[in-house]
Protein backbone atom coordinates (compact mmCIF):
# COMPACT_ATOMS: atom_id res chain seq x y z
CA UNK A 1 0.00 0.00 0.00
CA UNK A 2 1.58 3.31 -1.08
CA UNK A 3 1.45 6.40 1.19
CA UNK A 4 -1.49 8.01 -0.66
CA UNK A 5 -3.54 4.81 -0.49
CA UNK A 6 -2.71 4.43 3.18
CA UNK A 7 -3.92 7.95 3.97
CA UNK A 8 -7.18 7.31 2.09
CA UNK A 9 -7.99 4.15 4.09
CA UNK A 10 -10.47 6.16 6.13
CA UNK A 11 -12.28 3.26 7.81
CA UNK A 12 -8.96 2.06 9.23
CA UNK A 13 -8.06 5.46 10.69
CA UNK A 14 -11.47 5.72 12.36
CA UNK A 15 -10.60 2.65 14.47
CA UNK A 16 -7.70 4.53 16.07
CA UNK A 17 -8.12 6.30 19.41
CA UNK A 18 -5.23 8.69 18.76
CA UNK A 19 -3.91 10.46 15.66
CA UNK A 20 -0.50 12.06 15.70
CA UNK A 21 -0.88 15.68 14.67
CA UNK A 22 1.09 15.63 11.42
CA UNK A 23 -0.61 12.41 10.29
CA UNK A 24 -4.06 13.84 11.08
CA UNK A 25 -3.44 16.93 8.96
CA UNK A 26 -1.93 14.82 6.15
CA UNK A 27 -5.09 12.66 6.04
CA UNK A 28 -7.28 15.76 5.63
CA UNK A 29 -5.01 17.36 3.02
CA UNK A 30 -4.77 14.07 1.12
CA UNK A 31 -8.56 13.75 1.07
CA UNK A 32 -8.88 17.32 -0.21
CA UNK A 33 -6.34 16.77 -2.99
CA UNK A 34 -7.99 13.50 -4.05
CA UNK A 35 -11.32 15.30 -4.46
CA UNK A 36 -9.86 18.04 -6.65
CA UNK A 37 -9.80 17.82 -10.44
CA UNK A 38 -6.31 19.06 -11.14
CA UNK A 39 -4.98 20.47 -14.39
CA UNK A 40 -1.37 20.82 -15.50
CA UNK A 41 -1.44 24.50 -14.52
CA UNK A 42 -2.45 23.84 -10.90
CA UNK A 43 0.20 23.92 -8.19
CA UNK A 44 -0.76 21.02 -5.93
CA UNK A 45 2.21 21.58 -3.64
CA UNK A 46 1.33 25.23 -3.03
CA UNK A 47 -2.34 24.37 -2.47
CA UNK A 48 -1.39 21.71 0.09
CA UNK A 49 1.03 24.10 1.82
CA UNK A 50 -1.62 26.82 2.08
CA UNK A 51 -4.15 24.33 3.46
CA UNK A 52 -1.66 22.99 6.01
CA UNK A 53 -0.66 26.49 7.16
CA UNK A 54 -4.32 27.47 7.56
CA UNK A 55 -5.15 24.41 9.67
CA UNK A 56 -2.06 24.84 11.88
CA UNK A 57 -2.92 28.49 12.49
CA UNK A 58 -6.52 27.66 13.47
CA UNK A 59 -5.29 24.87 15.78
CA UNK A 60 -3.73 27.61 17.89
CA UNK A 61 -7.12 29.18 18.57
CA UNK A 62 -8.95 28.73 21.85
CA UNK A 63 -11.77 26.68 20.31
CA UNK A 64 -9.33 23.98 19.14
CA UNK A 65 -8.09 22.99 22.59
CA UNK A 66 -10.57 20.11 22.96
CA UNK A 67 -9.07 18.52 19.83
CA UNK A 68 -5.77 17.75 21.56
CA UNK A 69 -4.85 14.77 23.68
CA UNK A 70 -1.33 16.19 23.80
CA UNK A 71 -0.61 19.76 22.70
CA UNK A 72 2.85 20.96 21.70
CA UNK A 73 3.44 24.59 20.82
CA UNK A 74 6.56 26.47 19.80
CA UNK A 75 6.46 29.79 21.66
CA UNK A 76 6.66 33.08 19.83
CA UNK A 77 10.06 34.74 19.65
CA UNK A 78 13.03 35.52 17.44
CA UNK A 79 14.68 32.78 15.38
CA UNK A 80 18.42 32.40 14.68
CA UNK A 81 18.10 34.86 11.76
CA UNK A 82 16.64 37.51 14.05
CA UNK A 83 13.16 37.21 12.49
CA UNK A 84 10.17 37.28 14.81
CA UNK A 85 8.08 34.09 14.65
CA UNK A 86 4.53 33.76 15.94
CA UNK A 87 3.69 30.89 18.28
CA UNK A 88 2.90 27.75 16.31
CA UNK A 89 1.51 24.26 17.00
CA UNK A 90 4.16 21.56 16.53
CA UNK A 91 2.21 18.80 14.80
CA UNK A 92 4.87 16.11 15.13
CA UNK A 93 4.76 16.37 18.95
CA UNK A 94 0.98 16.70 19.27
CA UNK A 95 -1.72 14.03 19.52
CA UNK A 96 -5.34 14.51 18.44
CA UNK A 97 -8.63 12.95 19.42
CA UNK A 98 -9.67 11.83 15.89
CA UNK A 99 -13.44 12.41 16.07
CA UNK A 100 -13.12 15.74 17.88
CA UNK A 101 -10.55 16.84 15.31
CA UNK A 102 -12.83 15.89 12.42
CA UNK A 103 -15.86 17.58 14.00
CA UNK A 104 -13.78 20.73 14.58
CA UNK A 105 -12.60 20.76 10.96
CA UNK A 106 -16.13 20.21 9.68
CA UNK A 107 -17.36 23.10 11.82
CA UNK A 108 -14.61 25.26 10.28
CA UNK A 109 -15.92 24.51 6.79
CA UNK A 110 -13.27 22.04 5.60
CA UNK A 111 -14.46 19.38 3.17
CA UNK A 112 -14.13 15.83 4.50
CA UNK A 113 -14.53 12.37 2.96
CA UNK A 114 -17.94 10.73 3.24
CA UNK A 115 -16.68 8.21 5.83
CA UNK A 116 -15.55 11.01 8.15
CA UNK A 117 -18.74 13.05 7.71
CA UNK A 118 -20.84 9.96 8.45
CA UNK A 119 -18.89 9.43 11.68
CA UNK A 120 -19.48 13.04 12.75
CA UNK A 121 -23.23 12.72 12.10
CA UNK A 122 -23.29 9.50 14.11
CA UNK A 123 -21.54 11.22 17.03
CA UNK A 124 -23.99 14.13 16.87
CA UNK A 125 -26.96 11.76 16.92
CA UNK A 126 -25.64 10.16 20.10
CA UNK A 127 -25.35 13.41 22.06
CA UNK A 128 -27.47 13.15 25.20
CA UNK A 129 -30.81 14.92 24.90
CA UNK A 130 -30.06 16.87 28.10
CA UNK A 131 -26.92 18.35 26.53
CA UNK A 132 -28.81 19.50 23.42
CA UNK A 133 -31.61 20.91 25.60
CA UNK A 134 -29.09 22.75 27.79
CA UNK A 135 -27.54 24.34 24.69
CA UNK A 136 -30.95 25.47 23.50
CA UNK A 137 -31.80 27.02 26.88
CA UNK A 138 -28.40 28.76 27.13
CA UNK A 139 -28.87 30.21 23.66
CA UNK A 140 -32.25 31.71 24.57
CA UNK A 141 -30.91 33.15 27.84
CA UNK A 142 -27.83 34.65 26.18
CA UNK A 143 -29.91 36.20 23.41
CA UNK A 144 -32.39 37.64 25.94
CA UNK A 145 -29.57 39.21 27.95
CA UNK A 146 -27.97 40.55 24.76
CA UNK A 147 -31.21 42.18 23.60
CA UNK A 148 -31.53 43.95 26.97
CA UNK A 149 -27.91 45.13 26.95
CA UNK A 150 -28.15 46.34 23.34
CA UNK A 151 -31.28 48.33 24.25
CA UNK A 152 -29.23 50.33 26.77
CA UNK A 153 -25.89 50.23 24.90
CA UNK A 154 -26.66 50.05 21.15
CA UNK A 155 -23.03 50.59 20.10
CA UNK A 156 -21.64 47.48 21.80
CA UNK A 157 -19.74 45.17 19.46
CA UNK A 158 -20.28 41.42 19.39
CA UNK A 159 -16.87 40.96 21.06
CA UNK A 160 -17.81 43.33 23.90
CA UNK A 161 -21.16 41.60 24.29
CA UNK A 162 -19.55 38.15 24.28
CA UNK A 163 -17.12 39.16 27.05
CA UNK A 164 -19.74 40.94 29.18
CA UNK A 165 -20.14 39.50 32.68
CA UNK A 166 -23.89 39.07 32.22
CA UNK A 167 -23.34 36.85 29.16
CA UNK A 168 -20.38 34.96 30.61
CA UNK A 169 -21.86 34.29 34.07
CA UNK A 170 -25.64 34.60 33.99
CA UNK A 171 -25.95 33.37 30.41
CA UNK A 172 -23.46 30.50 30.97
CA UNK A 173 -21.35 31.88 28.12
CA UNK A 174 -18.18 30.72 29.88
CA UNK A 175 -19.19 27.14 29.06
CA UNK A 176 -18.85 27.87 25.34
CA UNK A 177 -15.14 28.39 24.86
CA UNK A 178 -15.27 28.11 21.07
CA UNK A 179 -15.22 31.44 19.26
CA UNK A 180 -18.11 30.59 16.95
CA UNK A 181 -20.96 29.46 19.21
CA UNK A 182 -21.50 32.64 21.22
CA UNK A 183 -20.74 34.84 18.22
CA UNK A 184 -23.40 33.03 16.20
CA UNK A 185 -26.02 33.36 18.93
CA UNK A 186 -25.29 37.07 19.40
CA UNK A 187 -25.15 37.83 15.70
CA UNK A 188 -28.73 36.57 15.35
CA UNK A 189 -30.00 39.31 17.70
CA UNK A 190 -27.47 42.09 17.00
CA UNK A 191 -29.67 45.09 16.12
CA UNK A 192 -26.83 46.67 14.12
CA UNK A 193 -26.97 43.90 11.51
CA UNK A 194 -30.65 44.37 10.71
CA UNK A 195 -31.46 47.03 8.14
CA UNK A 196 -34.50 49.08 8.94
CA UNK A 197 -35.04 50.51 5.45
CA UNK A 198 -35.73 54.14 4.54
CA UNK A 199 -37.46 56.33 7.10
CA UNK A 200 -41.05 57.16 6.38
CA UNK A 201 -41.86 60.77 5.67
CA UNK A 202 -44.10 62.44 8.24
Tell me what the structure shows.
The protein is mostly helical and 202 residues long. The protein has 2 domains: 123 residues, no CATH class; 65 residues. Helices cover 54% and strands 7% of the residues. It contains 10 helices and 7 strands. Strands 1-7-2 form a 3-stranded antiparallel sheet. A two-stranded antiparallel sheet has the order 3-6. A two-stranded antiparallel ribbon has the order 4-5. Strand 4 and strand 5 form a beta hairpin. It is globular. It starts with a helix and ends in a 13-residue tail after the last helix.
Strand order of the largest sheet: 1-7-2
Identify the overall geometry.
Answer: globular
Chain oligomer state: single chain
Main β-sheet: number of strands, strand sense, barrel status?
3 strands, antiparallel
Q: How far is it from the N-terminal to the C-terminal residue, by CA?
A: 77 Å
Helix content: 40-55%
Number of strands: 7
Cα Rg = 21 Å
| Total count of domains | 2
Beta-strand percentage? 5-15%
Q: How many individual helices? A: 10
**Sequence of secondary-structure elements:** HHEHHEEEEEEHHHHHH
Low-pLDDT runs: none
Classify the secondary structure makeup into a structural class.
Answer: mainly alpha
Annotation keywords:
single chain; 202 residues; mainly alpha; 3-stranded antiparallel sheet; two-stranded antiparallel sheet; 54% helix
Write the layout of secondary structure elements.
Layout: H1 3-7, H2 10-13, E1 19-20, H3 21-35, H4 44-59, E2 68-70, E3 73-74, E4 77-78, E5 84-85, E6 88-89, E7 95-96, H5 98-107, H6 114-125, H7 129-152, H8 158-163, H9 165-170, H10 179-189
Antiparallel strand pairs: 1-7, 2-7, 3-6, 4-5
Helix pairs in contact: 3-4, 5-6, 7-10
Amino acid sequence: MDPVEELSYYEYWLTKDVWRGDLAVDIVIGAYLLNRSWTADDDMHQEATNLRDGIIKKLGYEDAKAVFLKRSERPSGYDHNGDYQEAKIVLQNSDFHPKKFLAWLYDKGYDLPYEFKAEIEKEDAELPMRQRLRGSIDKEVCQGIARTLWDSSPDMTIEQMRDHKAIQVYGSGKLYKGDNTLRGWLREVDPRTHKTGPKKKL
